[in-house]
Amino acid sequence: MRLIGITGGVGSGKSEVLKYIEEHYYCRVYLADQVAHEVKKPGQPCYRQLVGLLGKGVLSPDGSIDRTVMASRIFVDRKLLQKVNDIVHPAVQQYLMDRVEEARRDPRTELFFIEAALLIETGYKDIVDEMWYVYASEGTRRQRLIKERGYTDQRVTQIMRQQLSEEAFREKSDFILDNDGPLEECLRQIDERLAPFSRREE
What is the pLDDT of residue 202? Predict the structure, then answer.
């Protein structure tokens, strides 16, 4: 089984790439953001630690952590954000490694993909077999985010400033997937890269 990390700037098209791979190859796909929500649920590894750190004011009436309230607290306090990340990131990584071990025991799973914007920053480069960088120019990404997600130009700029530079992404990646043009061209590159692996029956 090949363990592959997928990263890239916001708006680069990582979701489209993974949707295609999931439909056409024998793989498992995990999004780190979704896993992060999972490990914060009541009874999960991070829940008690986060409530202890942030206080009961961060809870919804049903006892779950209110993501909006938590975000409003941590994104104005860098030290608090770091403390939350120090709790959540190791739990996410452990959750994913447990899923990887399960997948390795399943002979049908040939590929395992982990997707996150911060894969490189959070140390996954040392864990995955190869790191893919989904590339799209800043102009293309900006256009997509404004058109498809309704972001303002200012919000796009703020998000982009918090992410790695294109040079840093390229330097740390084993494969550059160019998604700056037509999607069909991007999908062709995927098929070429994954040629050694089985395709699902059409």
Answer: 58
Per-residue pLDDT of 52-104, as tens digits, reads: 999 999 999 999 999 999 988 888 888 999 999 999 999 999 999 999 999 99
* Cα torsion 81, 167, 186, 127: sign: negative
Partnered with residue 65 across adjacent β-strands are: 59
Tokens describing residue 112: 């395992």
What the chain holds in terms of domains, given with CATH numbers, is 1-26+110-196 (3.40.50.300), 33-108 (3.40.50.300)
**Exposed, middle or buried, 171 (CB in 10 Å: 0-12/13-18/19+)?**
exposed
State which H helix or E strand residue 12 sits in: none
In a 10 Å sphere around its CB, with 0-12 CB exposed, 13-18 middle and 19+ buried, how is residue 88 labelled?
A: buried
Cα–Cα distance measured from residue 180 to residue 186, given in angstroms and rounded to the nearest whole number: 8
